Amino acid sequence: MSSSTNASTWGSPSGTIKFPKEVAPFTVSISQEQLDRTQALLKLSPIPGECYENSLPDGSRKLGLRREWLVEAKRVWEEEFDWKSVESRINSFPNFTAPVPVNDKGEQINIQFLGVFSQNPNAVPVVFLHGWPGSILEFLPLFNLLKKSYPDSSQLPFHLIAPSLPGFGFSDQFPTDRNYGMEDVAFVVDSFMVGTLGLKNYVVQGGDIGSRIARVLGNRYEHCSAVLVNYSPVPPPEGFDFTTLSEKDKKGLERGDWFRNDGSAYAMMAASRPGTLGLALSTNPLALLAWVGEKYLDWTDPLSFAQDRTLPSGARYSRKLMEEIIASVALYWHTGKIHTSFYSYREAFALNGRAPPSSNAQFPVMAPKKVGMMWFPYEVIPTPRAWIEKYSNLIFWREEEVGGHFAQLEQPGVLARGLEDFVKVLQQK
Predict the structure, then answer these.
(1) Nearest 10 degrees: Cα torsion 383, 413, 292, 261
(2) Does domain 88-241+360-428 have CATH number 2.60.40.10?
Protein backbone atom coordinates (compact mmCIF):
# COMPACT_ATOMS: atom_id res chain seq x y z
CA MET A 1 0.00 0.00 0.00
CA SER A 2 1.32 3.40 -0.84
CA SER A 3 0.27 7.02 -0.73
CA SER A 4 0.76 8.79 -4.02
CA THR A 5 -1.35 11.10 -6.16
CA ASN A 6 -4.45 9.39 -7.53
CA ALA A 7 -4.74 9.68 -11.30
CA SER A 8 -8.49 10.27 -11.20
CA THR A 9 -9.58 13.90 -11.06
CA TRP A 10 -13.34 13.39 -11.38
CA GLY A 11 -14.99 14.87 -8.32
CA SER A 12 -11.68 15.72 -6.62
CA PRO A 13 -11.90 18.24 -3.74
CA SER A 14 -12.07 21.91 -4.58
CA GLY A 15 -14.60 24.70 -4.34
CA THR A 16 -16.90 23.90 -1.43
CA ILE A 17 -14.47 21.56 0.37
CA LYS A 18 -10.89 22.33 1.29
CA PHE A 19 -8.78 19.54 2.73
CA PRO A 20 -6.53 20.24 5.71
CA LYS A 21 -2.87 19.39 5.14
CA GLU A 22 -3.21 16.16 7.13
CA VAL A 23 -5.35 14.59 4.38
CA ALA A 24 -3.10 12.69 1.98
CA PRO A 25 -3.83 11.11 -1.43
CA PHE A 26 -3.73 7.33 -1.30
CA THR A 27 -3.31 4.57 -3.87
CA VAL A 28 -4.07 0.92 -3.18
CA SER A 29 -1.10 -1.23 -4.18
CA ILE A 30 -0.43 -4.70 -2.80
CA SER A 31 3.08 -5.93 -3.50
CA GLN A 32 3.69 -8.75 -5.95
CA GLU A 33 5.58 -10.59 -3.21
CA GLN A 34 2.46 -10.60 -1.06
CA LEU A 35 0.29 -11.72 -3.97
CA ASP A 36 2.71 -14.56 -4.73
CA ARG A 37 2.65 -15.66 -1.10
CA THR A 38 -1.14 -15.77 -1.20
CA GLN A 39 -1.05 -17.93 -4.33
CA ALA A 40 1.37 -20.31 -2.66
CA LEU A 41 -0.85 -20.64 0.39
CA LEU A 42 -3.90 -21.30 -1.78
CA LYS A 43 -2.12 -24.03 -3.74
CA LEU A 44 -0.93 -25.73 -0.55
CA SER A 45 -4.32 -25.55 1.19
CA PRO A 46 -6.26 -28.82 1.05
CA ILE A 47 -10.02 -29.14 0.78
CA PRO A 48 -11.36 -32.11 2.74
CA GLY A 49 -13.34 -34.81 0.99
CA GLU A 50 -17.07 -35.07 0.65
CA CYS A 51 -19.20 -35.81 3.67
CA TYR A 52 -22.89 -35.59 4.39
CA GLU A 53 -22.63 -32.13 5.94
CA ASN A 54 -20.76 -30.45 3.06
CA SER A 55 -22.55 -32.31 0.26
CA LEU A 56 -26.18 -32.62 1.31
CA PRO A 57 -28.11 -34.75 -1.21
CA ASP A 58 -30.86 -32.12 -1.49
CA GLY A 59 -28.33 -29.56 -2.75
CA SER A 60 -28.93 -27.16 0.13
CA ARG A 61 -26.57 -25.29 2.47
CA LYS A 62 -28.59 -26.12 5.59
CA LEU A 63 -25.48 -27.37 7.36
CA GLY A 64 -23.00 -24.90 5.90
CA LEU A 65 -21.01 -24.19 2.78
CA ARG A 66 -21.04 -26.82 0.06
CA ARG A 67 -17.70 -28.38 -0.78
CA GLU A 68 -18.17 -28.20 -4.55
CA TRP A 69 -18.60 -24.40 -4.45
CA LEU A 70 -15.38 -24.01 -2.46
CA VAL A 71 -13.49 -26.27 -4.87
CA GLU A 72 -14.53 -24.08 -7.80
CA ALA A 73 -13.92 -20.81 -5.93
CA LYS A 74 -10.42 -21.97 -4.97
CA ARG A 75 -9.70 -22.78 -8.62
CA VAL A 76 -10.96 -19.38 -9.77
CA TRP A 77 -8.88 -17.52 -7.16
CA GLU A 78 -5.76 -19.48 -8.12
CA GLU A 79 -6.14 -19.45 -11.90
CA GLU A 80 -8.37 -16.58 -13.02
CA PHE A 81 -8.89 -13.94 -10.34
CA ASP A 82 -6.95 -10.72 -10.90
CA TRP A 83 -6.39 -8.67 -7.74
CA LYS A 84 -4.83 -5.86 -9.76
CA SER A 85 -8.16 -5.30 -11.49
CA VAL A 86 -9.73 -4.84 -8.05
CA GLU A 87 -7.06 -2.28 -7.22
CA SER A 88 -7.85 -0.47 -10.46
CA ARG A 89 -11.53 -0.34 -9.55
CA ILE A 90 -10.75 1.19 -6.17
CA ASN A 91 -8.15 3.58 -7.57
CA SER A 92 -10.52 4.78 -10.29
CA PHE A 93 -11.97 6.99 -7.56
CA PRO A 94 -10.06 9.53 -5.48
CA ASN A 95 -8.63 7.83 -2.39
CA PHE A 96 -7.28 9.51 0.71
CA THR A 97 -6.11 8.91 4.25
CA ALA A 98 -6.48 11.19 7.24
CA PRO A 99 -5.66 11.04 10.95
CA VAL A 100 -8.91 11.06 12.94
CA PRO A 101 -9.46 11.18 16.73
CA VAL A 102 -10.72 7.98 18.36
CA ASN A 103 -11.55 9.60 21.71
CA ASP A 104 -11.67 12.96 23.44
CA LYS A 105 -8.09 12.47 24.69
CA GLY A 106 -6.67 13.27 21.28
CA GLU A 107 -5.54 9.75 20.31
CA GLN A 108 -5.73 9.28 16.55
CA ILE A 109 -5.81 6.55 13.92
CA ASN A 110 -5.52 6.85 10.14
CA ILE A 111 -8.76 6.40 8.20
CA GLN A 112 -8.72 5.60 4.48
CA PHE A 113 -11.67 6.82 2.43
CA LEU A 114 -13.06 7.24 -1.05
CA GLY A 115 -14.04 10.84 -1.65
CA VAL A 116 -16.02 11.91 -4.70
CA PHE A 117 -16.68 15.61 -4.26
CA SER A 118 -19.15 17.65 -6.26
CA GLN A 119 -18.40 21.14 -7.51
CA ASN A 120 -22.04 22.02 -6.84
CA PRO A 121 -22.15 24.45 -3.87
CA ASN A 122 -25.49 22.95 -2.82
CA ALA A 123 -24.29 19.34 -2.87
CA VAL A 124 -25.36 17.25 0.12
CA PRO A 125 -22.52 15.38 1.88
CA VAL A 126 -23.35 11.66 2.21
CA VAL A 127 -21.13 9.28 4.16
CA PHE A 128 -21.55 5.58 3.31
CA LEU A 129 -20.87 3.05 6.05
CA HIS A 130 -20.25 -0.61 5.20
CA GLY A 131 -20.77 -3.60 7.43
CA TRP A 132 -19.27 -7.05 8.02
CA PRO A 133 -18.07 -8.86 5.97
CA GLY A 134 -18.31 -5.82 3.75
CA SER A 135 -15.91 -3.07 2.78
CA ILE A 136 -15.68 -0.03 0.52
CA LEU A 137 -15.89 -2.50 -2.39
CA GLU A 138 -19.66 -2.75 -1.98
CA PHE A 139 -20.06 0.94 -2.84
CA LEU A 140 -18.05 0.87 -6.08
CA PRO A 141 -20.95 -0.22 -8.34
CA LEU A 142 -23.14 2.53 -6.85
CA PHE A 143 -20.42 5.16 -7.29
CA ASN A 144 -19.80 4.00 -10.85
CA LEU A 145 -23.46 4.42 -11.74
CA LEU A 146 -23.54 7.91 -10.25
CA LYS A 147 -20.33 8.78 -12.08
CA LYS A 148 -22.00 7.83 -15.37
CA SER A 149 -25.17 9.71 -14.47
CA TYR A 150 -23.24 12.86 -13.59
CA PRO A 151 -20.13 13.01 -15.79
CA ASP A 152 -19.95 16.71 -15.02
CA SER A 153 -19.21 16.81 -11.30
CA SER A 154 -20.76 20.28 -11.03
CA GLN A 155 -24.11 18.54 -11.54
CA LEU A 156 -23.55 15.86 -8.91
CA PRO A 157 -26.13 16.55 -6.16
CA PHE A 158 -24.05 15.01 -3.37
CA HIS A 159 -20.55 14.50 -2.10
CA LEU A 160 -19.90 10.73 -1.92
CA ILE A 161 -17.68 9.72 0.98
CA ALA A 162 -16.97 6.09 1.90
CA PRO A 163 -14.49 5.38 4.70
CA SER A 164 -13.09 2.00 5.61
CA LEU A 165 -14.28 1.61 9.19
CA PRO A 166 -11.67 1.31 11.95
CA GLY A 167 -10.18 -2.18 11.88
CA PHE A 168 -11.31 -2.75 8.27
CA GLY A 169 -9.55 -2.48 4.92
CA PHE A 170 -6.91 0.21 4.69
CA SER A 171 -7.89 2.02 7.89
CA ASP A 172 -6.02 1.49 11.14
CA GLN A 173 -7.47 -0.67 13.86
CA PHE A 174 -8.55 0.75 17.20
CA PRO A 175 -5.96 0.94 19.98
CA THR A 176 -5.65 -2.24 22.06
CA ASP A 177 -5.92 -0.58 25.48
CA ARG A 178 -9.67 -1.13 25.92
CA ASN A 179 -12.83 -2.35 24.25
CA TYR A 180 -14.02 -0.15 21.39
CA GLY A 181 -17.50 -0.48 19.91
CA MET A 182 -20.14 1.09 17.71
CA GLU A 183 -20.43 4.27 19.72
CA ASP A 184 -16.69 4.76 19.32
CA VAL A 185 -17.02 4.23 15.56
CA ALA A 186 -19.74 6.90 15.48
CA PHE A 187 -17.37 9.26 17.31
CA VAL A 188 -14.70 8.58 14.68
CA VAL A 189 -17.10 9.09 11.75
CA ASP A 190 -18.48 12.36 13.12
CA SER A 191 -14.97 13.60 13.95
CA PHE A 192 -13.93 12.72 10.41
CA MET A 193 -16.90 14.40 8.71
CA VAL A 194 -16.97 17.52 10.87
CA GLY A 195 -13.45 17.94 12.20
CA THR A 196 -11.45 16.63 9.25
CA LEU A 197 -13.62 17.53 6.25
CA GLY A 198 -15.31 20.55 7.83
CA LEU A 199 -18.85 19.43 6.90
CA LYS A 200 -21.42 20.89 9.27
CA ASN A 201 -24.46 19.07 7.89
CA TYR A 202 -24.30 15.54 6.51
CA VAL A 203 -26.41 12.49 5.69
CA VAL A 204 -25.35 8.96 6.57
CA GLN A 205 -26.23 5.84 4.56
CA GLY A 206 -25.59 2.31 5.76
CA GLY A 207 -26.55 -1.32 6.01
CA ASP A 208 -25.54 -4.06 8.43
CA ILE A 209 -23.39 -2.58 11.22
CA GLY A 210 -23.23 0.59 9.14
CA SER A 211 -26.94 1.06 9.88
CA ARG A 212 -26.30 0.75 13.61
CA ILE A 213 -23.55 3.36 13.44
CA ALA A 214 -25.92 5.53 11.38
CA ARG A 215 -28.51 5.37 14.14
CA VAL A 216 -25.96 6.34 16.78
CA LEU A 217 -24.93 9.30 14.63
CA GLY A 218 -28.53 10.39 14.07
CA ASN A 219 -29.33 9.99 17.75
CA ARG A 220 -26.30 11.71 19.26
CA TYR A 221 -24.55 14.00 16.81
CA GLU A 222 -26.04 17.33 15.83
CA HIS A 223 -24.28 17.63 12.47
CA CYS A 224 -25.82 14.37 11.22
CA SER A 225 -29.16 15.65 9.92
CA ALA A 226 -30.55 12.54 8.23
CA VAL A 227 -30.16 8.78 8.05
CA LEU A 228 -30.89 6.48 5.09
CA VAL A 229 -30.59 2.78 5.91
CA ASN A 230 -31.37 -0.53 4.25
CA TYR A 231 -31.26 -2.60 7.45
CA SER A 232 -33.07 -1.76 10.65
CA PRO A 233 -33.86 -4.68 12.97
CA VAL A 234 -35.94 -3.38 15.87
CA PRO A 235 -38.48 -5.09 18.16
CA PRO A 236 -42.23 -4.69 17.71
CA PRO A 237 -43.93 -1.87 19.60
CA GLU A 238 -45.61 -2.94 22.82
CA GLY A 239 -49.04 -4.40 22.10
CA PHE A 240 -48.46 -4.61 18.36
CA ASP A 241 -51.30 -6.32 16.49
CA PHE A 242 -49.64 -9.05 14.42
CA THR A 243 -52.86 -9.62 12.44
CA THR A 244 -52.14 -6.33 10.63
CA LEU A 245 -48.98 -7.66 8.99
CA SER A 246 -48.88 -7.90 5.21
CA GLU A 247 -47.86 -11.09 3.45
CA LYS A 248 -44.49 -9.50 2.65
CA ASP A 249 -43.98 -8.70 6.31
CA LYS A 250 -44.87 -12.24 7.34
CA LYS A 251 -42.35 -13.66 4.88
CA GLY A 252 -39.81 -11.16 6.13
CA LEU A 253 -40.31 -12.24 9.73
CA GLU A 254 -39.96 -15.88 8.66
CA ARG A 255 -36.60 -15.03 7.09
CA GLY A 256 -35.59 -13.26 10.30
CA ASP A 257 -36.48 -16.40 12.26
CA TRP A 258 -34.31 -18.45 9.88
CA PHE A 259 -31.38 -16.11 10.42
CA ARG A 260 -31.66 -16.11 14.21
CA ASN A 261 -32.24 -19.86 14.52
CA ASP A 262 -30.15 -21.31 11.68
CA GLY A 263 -27.87 -18.61 10.31
CA SER A 264 -26.36 -16.81 13.27
CA ALA A 265 -23.93 -19.36 14.75
CA TYR A 266 -21.06 -17.42 13.16
CA ALA A 267 -22.17 -14.29 15.05
CA MET A 268 -22.19 -16.06 18.39
CA MET A 269 -18.63 -17.17 17.71
CA ALA A 270 -17.60 -13.64 16.72
CA ALA A 271 -19.31 -12.26 19.83
CA SER A 272 -18.02 -14.77 22.38
CA ARG A 273 -14.63 -15.92 21.03
CA PRO A 274 -13.43 -13.32 18.51
CA GLY A 275 -9.81 -13.78 19.57
CA THR A 276 -9.78 -17.44 18.60
CA LEU A 277 -11.76 -16.87 15.43
CA GLY A 278 -9.52 -14.05 14.27
CA LEU A 279 -6.36 -16.04 14.87
CA ALA A 280 -7.73 -19.07 13.02
CA LEU A 281 -9.01 -17.19 9.97
CA SER A 282 -5.79 -15.18 9.66
CA THR A 283 -3.71 -18.29 9.01
CA ASN A 284 -5.12 -19.30 5.64
CA PRO A 285 -6.89 -17.53 2.75
CA LEU A 286 -8.93 -20.62 1.87
CA ALA A 287 -10.34 -20.85 5.40
CA LEU A 288 -11.28 -17.19 5.17
CA LEU A 289 -12.92 -17.77 1.79
CA ALA A 290 -15.08 -20.54 3.26
CA TRP A 291 -16.08 -18.48 6.30
CA VAL A 292 -16.98 -15.33 4.39
CA GLY A 293 -18.29 -17.02 1.24
CA GLU A 294 -21.06 -18.74 3.16
CA LYS A 295 -22.40 -15.37 4.33
CA TYR A 296 -22.56 -13.84 0.87
CA LEU A 297 -24.28 -16.91 -0.57
CA ASP A 298 -26.88 -17.05 2.21
CA TRP A 299 -27.53 -13.32 2.55
CA THR A 300 -27.82 -12.18 -1.08
CA ASP A 301 -31.03 -12.45 -3.05
CA PRO A 302 -30.57 -15.17 -5.70
CA LEU A 303 -32.43 -12.87 -8.10
CA SER A 304 -29.68 -10.23 -7.77
CA PHE A 305 -27.10 -12.38 -9.55
CA ALA A 306 -27.67 -14.57 -12.59
CA GLN A 307 -27.09 -18.26 -11.85
CA ASP A 308 -25.05 -18.65 -15.03
CA ARG A 309 -22.59 -21.48 -14.28
CA THR A 310 -22.91 -25.16 -13.37
CA LEU A 311 -21.02 -27.16 -10.76
CA PRO A 312 -20.19 -30.87 -11.27
CA SER A 313 -23.34 -31.89 -9.39
CA GLY A 314 -25.43 -29.86 -11.81
CA ALA A 315 -26.14 -27.12 -9.28
CA ARG A 316 -26.23 -23.61 -10.68
CA TYR A 317 -24.20 -20.74 -9.26
CA SER A 318 -23.37 -17.14 -10.09
CA ARG A 319 -19.85 -16.54 -11.39
CA LYS A 320 -20.25 -12.78 -10.82
CA LEU A 321 -21.14 -13.29 -7.16
CA MET A 322 -18.25 -15.72 -6.76
CA GLU A 323 -15.85 -13.08 -8.11
CA GLU A 324 -17.27 -10.44 -5.78
CA ILE A 325 -16.82 -12.81 -2.84
CA ILE A 326 -13.21 -13.55 -3.77
CA ALA A 327 -12.50 -9.82 -4.13
CA SER A 328 -13.97 -9.14 -0.69
CA VAL A 329 -12.02 -11.98 0.91
CA ALA A 330 -8.82 -10.93 -0.86
CA LEU A 331 -9.21 -7.41 0.55
CA TYR A 332 -9.52 -8.75 4.09
CA TRP A 333 -6.62 -11.11 3.50
CA HIS A 334 -4.21 -8.65 1.92
CA THR A 335 -4.87 -5.99 4.56
CA GLY A 336 -4.63 -8.51 7.41
CA LYS A 337 -7.78 -7.15 9.01
CA ILE A 338 -10.17 -10.04 9.52
CA HIS A 339 -9.15 -10.41 13.19
CA THR A 340 -9.80 -6.71 13.89
CA SER A 341 -13.23 -6.66 12.23
CA PHE A 342 -15.33 -8.62 14.73
CA TYR A 343 -15.75 -6.06 17.49
CA SER A 344 -19.31 -5.08 16.58
CA TYR A 345 -20.67 -8.54 17.36
CA ARG A 346 -20.12 -8.27 21.10
CA GLU A 347 -22.79 -5.56 21.10
CA ALA A 348 -25.21 -6.95 18.57
CA PHE A 349 -25.91 -10.49 19.82
CA ALA A 350 -27.19 -11.91 23.08
CA LEU A 351 -24.80 -14.14 25.02
CA ASN A 352 -25.64 -16.63 27.78
CA GLY A 353 -29.29 -15.67 27.67
CA ARG A 354 -28.59 -11.98 28.25
CA ALA A 355 -29.98 -9.23 26.06
CA PRO A 356 -27.47 -7.59 23.73
CA PRO A 357 -25.89 -4.53 25.38
CA SER A 358 -26.59 -2.40 22.33
CA SER A 359 -29.42 -2.42 19.80
CA ASN A 360 -30.94 -0.19 17.17
CA ALA A 361 -33.91 0.45 19.47
CA GLN A 362 -31.55 2.11 21.95
CA PHE A 363 -30.77 4.79 19.38
CA PRO A 364 -34.07 6.20 18.08
CA VAL A 365 -33.69 8.89 15.44
CA MET A 366 -36.55 11.30 15.94
CA ALA A 367 -37.49 14.82 14.77
CA PRO A 368 -35.92 17.13 13.86
CA LYS A 369 -33.67 14.40 12.43
CA LYS A 370 -35.03 12.59 9.37
CA VAL A 371 -34.92 8.90 8.47
CA GLY A 372 -35.29 7.02 5.19
CA MET A 373 -35.63 3.27 4.84
CA MET A 374 -35.08 1.09 1.79
CA TRP A 375 -36.66 -2.29 2.46
CA PHE A 376 -35.38 -5.39 0.64
CA PRO A 377 -37.20 -8.75 0.82
CA TYR A 378 -34.10 -10.95 1.13
CA GLU A 379 -32.53 -8.97 3.96
CA VAL A 380 -31.54 -11.26 6.85
CA ILE A 381 -33.99 -9.53 9.19
CA PRO A 382 -36.61 -7.67 7.12
CA THR A 383 -38.53 -5.49 9.58
CA PRO A 384 -42.12 -4.20 9.23
CA ARG A 385 -42.53 -0.50 8.61
CA ALA A 386 -44.67 0.03 11.71
CA TRP A 387 -41.86 -1.27 13.91
CA ILE A 388 -39.26 1.03 12.34
CA GLU A 389 -41.59 4.02 12.66
CA LYS A 390 -41.65 3.48 16.43
CA TYR A 391 -37.95 4.39 16.57
CA SER A 392 -37.66 6.78 13.62
CA ASN A 393 -38.92 10.04 12.21
CA LEU A 394 -39.56 8.13 9.00
CA ILE A 395 -40.10 10.53 6.09
CA PHE A 396 -39.08 8.18 3.26
CA TRP A 397 -39.97 4.52 2.66
CA ARG A 398 -39.04 2.51 -0.40
CA GLU A 399 -40.14 -1.14 -0.60
CA GLU A 400 -38.25 -3.13 -3.23
CA GLU A 401 -39.04 -6.42 -4.93
CA VAL A 402 -35.52 -7.80 -5.27
CA GLY A 403 -32.44 -7.50 -3.07
CA GLY A 404 -30.83 -8.77 0.09
CA HIS A 405 -28.35 -7.89 2.79
CA PHE A 406 -25.68 -6.49 0.45
CA ALA A 407 -28.10 -4.11 -1.21
CA GLN A 408 -25.47 -1.61 -2.40
CA LEU A 409 -23.65 -4.41 -4.20
CA GLU A 410 -26.73 -6.32 -5.35
CA GLN A 411 -28.95 -3.45 -6.49
CA PRO A 412 -26.75 -0.36 -7.06
CA GLY A 413 -29.23 1.20 -9.48
CA VAL A 414 -32.02 0.90 -6.95
CA LEU A 415 -29.82 2.43 -4.25
CA ALA A 416 -28.79 5.27 -6.56
CA ARG A 417 -32.42 6.17 -7.30
CA GLY A 418 -33.35 5.84 -3.65
CA LEU A 419 -30.52 8.13 -2.60
CA GLU A 420 -31.47 10.73 -5.21
CA ASP A 421 -35.12 10.65 -4.15
CA PHE A 422 -34.31 10.77 -0.44
CA VAL A 423 -32.10 13.82 -0.88
CA LYS A 424 -34.84 15.53 -2.91
CA VAL A 425 -37.31 14.90 -0.08
CA LEU A 426 -34.82 16.32 2.42
CA GLN A 427 -34.42 19.48 0.36
CA GLN A 428 -38.20 19.94 0.17
CA LYS A 429 -38.80 19.69 3.91
Answers:
(1) 20
(2) no
Note the pLDDT tens digit of each residue in 117-140.
Answer: 998 889 999 999 999 999 999 999
Catalytic residue selected from 208, 249, 298, 301: 208
Residue 6 in this model has a pLDDT that exceeds 60:
no
- Residue whose C-alpha is closest to residue 166's, from 178, 179, 184: 184
Catalytic residue among 221, 296, 332, 345: 345
133 prior amide bond cis, ω within 30: yes
Tell me if residue 391 is catalytic. Answer: no
**Does the active-site annotation cover 159?**
no
Identify the CA nearest to 207 among candidates 294, 293, 132, 298.
Answer: 132
For residues 128 and 139, is the Cβ–Cβ distance under 8 A?
yes
Which among 112, 87, 362, 366 has a CA at the least distance from the CA of 225?
Answer: 366
Question: At 153, which helix (H) or strand (E)?
Answer: none
Residues of the chain with CATH 3.40.50.1820: 88-241+360-428
pLDDT at 5 over 80: no
The DSSP-derived string for 90-127 is HHTS-EEEEEEESSTT--EEEEEEEEE--S-TTPEEEE
Q: Would you state the pLDDT for residue 2?
A: 43
Report the range of poorest mean pLDDT among 8-17, 51-60, 71-80, 383-392.
Answer: 8-17
Of the residues 130, 334, 339, 405, which is catalytic?
405
pTM of the model as a whole: 0.94
Q: Is 11 left (phi over 0), alpha (psi -120 to 50) or beta?
A: left
Angle at 391 between CA 384 and CA 199, to 5 degrees: 115
Alpha-carbon gap, residue 310 to 308, rounded angstroms: 7
pLDDT digits (tens, 9 = 90+) for 227-286: 999 999 999 999 999 999 999 999 999 999 999 999 999 999 999 999 999 999 999 999
Active site residue 332: no
